[in-house]
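#structure-requests
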Amino acid sequence: MDSISVNKFRDNLKYFVEQVTSEHFPLKVTRRNGEDFVVISAEDWAREQETLYILQNNALIKQIATSSATHSKKSGYTPTAEELNEITGI
């Protein structure tokens, strides 16, 4: 993560906001007499929140692990041709 001073951030606000939103890299802004802060796009923030939700949900993590194991063993549920057609819209 790149880090810049609050003065540089303020002087080039539009540029840094465009960079954060288009390149999807957070930007740490440092202040001399205060807490630093991070600028992140709304899309990236939402994605991070979703990831945190999943990681904190033990039942969901177990379901993902089970699904991954059955997928790698090719022992999971196999849909019928009709179900596949319905899913793919064919």
